[in-house]
Design a protein that fits this description.
Length: about 500
Amino acid sequence: MGKPTGFMEITRQTSRELEPEERIKNFNEFHIPLHRDEQQTQGARCMDCGVPFCQSGTMLGGMASGCPLNNLIPEWNDLVYRGQWDLAVRRLIATNRYPEFTSRVCPALCEAACTCGMTTGFPVTVKENERAVVEYGYTNGVIHAVPPPSRTGKRVAVVGTGPSGLSVADLLNKRGHKVTMYERSDRVGGLLMYGIPNMKLEKWVIDRRVDILRQEGIDFVTGTDVGRDISAEELTEQYDAVVLCCGAKQPRDIAAPGRDAEGIYFAVDYLTSVTKSLLDSGFADGKAISAQGKKVLVIGGGDTGNDCVGTAIRQGCTGVTQLEMMPCPPEQRAPGNDWPEWPRVLKTDYGQQEAVAVFGSDPRLYQTTVKEFLKNDAGQVCGARIARLESKLVDGRRAMVPTGEEFTVECDLVLIAAGFTGCEKYVAEAFGVDMTPRGTVADAKYAASKPKVFVCGDMRRGQSLVVWALREGRDTAAVVDEYLMGYTNL
Ligand SMILES: Cc1cc2nc3c(=O)[nH]c(=O)nc-3n(C[C@H](O)[C@H](O)[C@H](O)COP(=O)(O)OP(=O)(O)OC[C@H]3O[C@@H](n4cnc5c(N)ncnc54)[C@H](O)[C@@H]3O)c2cc1C
Ligand code: SF4
């Protein structure tokens, strides 16, 4: 520990965010990182407390607490404080192969479990320290292509190039196996590319990493839908192992009358169209689903819904309402939700902040759901009947049920962000692997129910977080390596 009294003497300082009115003018990232010297000072706030829940990734109260990758946080915080940036990069990438992604999009489970946060309410800036370390690594050539010194002669196909696929591919390639990644979409990255909006993760960050992976020997085959364009049999014949990393993108629909109206889209389809049009042509092709001049209704109060709010505002919507079934969470931790558990408290994310700035109020309507979509004579959605909900005991279980109160919201664009019901079944069916009742692919320690076939990421665990996808990739790589070689050093 560099500075024993750092947490008492130094105030938490985070990156500056552009004001909402300014940042909605484009789709760029809007955090301005601290200067390296300032970040170095922040490293001194880590007290090396000896109770490192920050790196534990333990399940507490049904939620993960601390970093699922078990990042060596106190170690690299100390190296940051001492200005030993090269070493900090090496300690960081020892557990986290892609800190440039997590340090931009991770909800920072580490900070919620930081001991400094318990005592002062202001945790160490772990996530931003991580970003400073990885960006130093790129700028100063510490992170660069390192192809494996020799090859094992084994060939592995990885289906899906989201964070779990990229993670498993990187480690198996480093081990010397020849890896080919198959991707249905036109670009590599999974939900990092087409899902998470550009203002949270600019897409050159993914391309920068993919360039390195290519130089290290990984082959990428995009625009190829495994199970349709190429059969499961072909793949299992051609490769010594196949790892399915296809995500859990099956959206939960809203079964309400009027659902067939024009102008109702699933959130990921909407977000994908916007990012693709941005990357292909800077929006000149006009192919993005547009919220410009429209009143937008977002169904779902979670992170995906928030991404829709932020995107619609950037496109120039004239109003936005976000429905959330559950009650508004408390502003402070409630009794029974103590540190270091993940805090179940009200979070006003970037999109909601922007809605407050532009339209004067938080877009979220709690304890509500859609009862009916209303359409005009042309079949276009023009409104929705909303039912108010309350929490009641039904057959001994708590459930949200209608109060009987209803009202109407006007809208010309509806975005459904109501969660996901698992992976798309056709891939599992093509490979003949078992599914769970949760809509994910069943596995025994990442091995699917067919020989040679493994499963990883959201496809195995259901829709989750980037940091979990990376953890799954790391664990799966070790299992696949052991299957191929009889032992593993991963
Ligand atoms: C809108 C949105 C925003 C999110 N924001 C965050 C965030 O801010 N922070 C965070 O931590 N998590 C976030 N998440 C969750 C996170 O993105 C996922 O948990 C993570 O990407 C899962 O990684 P994965 O590799 O398992 O799957 P995915 O990222 O879903 O990648 C799966 C890939 O497989 C490909 N594929 C599927 N089937 C086939 C096939 N048959 N042949 C070839 N390729 C195929 C898909 O095209 C896709 O590229 C968000 C999710 C959504 C939907
Ligand atoms: S990956 Fe996420 S939880 Fe882990 S150290 Fe980084 S920000 Fe924290």
